[in-house]
Amino acid sequence: MTARVVLTVAALTLQEAARRRVLRALAVMTIVLLALSAWGFFRLDANFGTLTSGEARLATSQVLNLVMFGLSLIAALGTAFLAGPTVAGEIESGTALAILARPVRRSAVLLGKWLGLVVFGSGFVAVAGLTQLLIVWATTGYRPPQPVTGLALLAAQTIVLLTLALLLSTVISPMASGIVSVGLFGATWVAGVVGGVGQALGNQGMAQVGTVSRMLLPTDGLWRGAMRGFQDPAVLAQFPAFADFPFLSKAPLTPIYLAWTCLWVMLLLGLAGVVFQRRDL
Amino acid sequence: MGPVIRRPAARQGAPDDVSGPAAEAGAEAAERLVAGLPAAPAVWCSGLRKRYRRRTAVDDVSFTVGRGEVVGLLGPNGAGKTTVIKILLGLVRPDAGDVLLLGRPARDPQARARVGYLPELFRYQLWLTAAETLALHARLAGVAVPAGERRECLATVGLADRAGDRVGGFSKGMQQRLGLAVALVARPELVVLDEPTSALDPIGRADVRDLLLALKSRQVTVLLNSHLIGEVERVCDRVVILDKGKVAASGTLAELLGQRELRLRLDAVSPEAKERLAAAGRVTRSGDTFTVALPADQDVAAVPDLVADLVALGVRVHAVEPGRISLEERLLDILRAEPGGDRR
């Protein structure tokens, strides 16, 4: 009964994503990014003649991380702006009235929406990310050490952000929830950079900023884990001076951090369920 | 609720029989027992209250809608009609009170399995087609409605040729028609319509009236909130009048409109004659025209007796016209008579 509702709503959410302009916008942005990166990697490879092989690998893996950051930003923006309107927008417009007057639990509807968005976000990361890795492989011959883990962590980052956007959209307006979640995503990234600089300078206070923000919103932590999957492991050993660069990851993610991320997602989803259940329409 | 009838078979389901054939027999017996009871009312609500910050939207509202009845919910803007409907459907949480839909507590989503609803603020997924919208709602209701039946449902509301078109291209009126189809698609036993004709042209309104009459003939219960009193008067068996969040009056149309009035054009009306008029019912006067509201249970001789008495008291009687109070007049009467109401 509940499973049927969850799956029906998940399918509806995917259908919505497919039929609304956001998918086209996302597709156009992704194709532009992929095309640019293909051209860039091709040019990069052409200029490698003057570089040592270590320098070439460093350059390639760094550019790959930069492009992947762009992709993760597109995924984050896309899903956050899909998740925002999905609850708040439907409540505002009145679409939710007809749906929730059916014999359905609100928590099942919310879970269905979440599941649909998870499939959409993860699917996007898988397709766009894999295409990007293939482009890099074809143009420069570089193969990242852990492509699957990297993409999985990028998908997890998208899931974290869309869960946040979903929770916000049960409380605030559609546009606000999208903007706030993307804003927090950016703020956490900046806090991560600040933390990295703090570590490099041996400033405990600044380093704490990064650690705390990675706990509060795990997007940046997962992004750093994903980068580790794409960067050349020999690079850090070869060029220790680069260790504090924001597009490099020094340490792998701990299982405890991954467990915390899972718990974080479940907590937020549960909270969204409670808020949505109590909300008057 | 009907009386509980004890039957010997019901004892088979004793608490210690938790599994096995005995428990099954007990469950069957319990089903038979319930089946033997008169059907629970379509809607039963008691003591509903809802406050939005400082404003009381619904204040101790209780009413019942029997199976197969068509009940109109009337009242001025802001009387709490839509809030009451949303509480019944579990869309708004009441601060107090209980609701049973088709015999089940409204807290249980399954209570709405056989309920169709057209919201006042009707809006459907704009990226779906009309046919897909109906399929979605049938699936959410958990009812297997064949495609042919869904098409028929669209045809009932006049959208047969737009089944494959996206809702985003529909006019307001067409969306409201689609909303009616959505309310009807899952073979409901109770249909709740909140202002079903607000976006419709006169032809659409006539269609809705026919639809309501068709539902009535099929014994489908309807709770109708409408501003169009004429519409309510034509199709409803009973009305519940809400004002400032409270039930101001409720009853069958006969009970509410049973009251007749008598218009008399008189002159030479002495104080005794005025007393005699007042004894017959509530009197309003405009110039030489006196309107007497006669009680519903008057006997047939009341009017000739009144005229004879007035003549005997020396009153010159120019005209005596019987009149029937319309629901609109009665509604205004009730709302204006409310304590603290808008007396004019």
UniProtKB/TrEMBL annotation, chain A:
The keyword Transmembrane helix applies. Keywords: Membrane, Transmembrane, Transmembrane helix. GO terms for cellular component: plasma membrane. The chain crosses the membrane at residues 22-42, 62-83, 114-138, 150-172, 179-201, 256-276. It comes from Actinomadura rudentiformis. The keyword Protease does not apply. One of its GO terms (molecular function) is ABC-type transporter activity. It holds the Pfam family ABC2_membrane_2. This is ABC transporter permease.
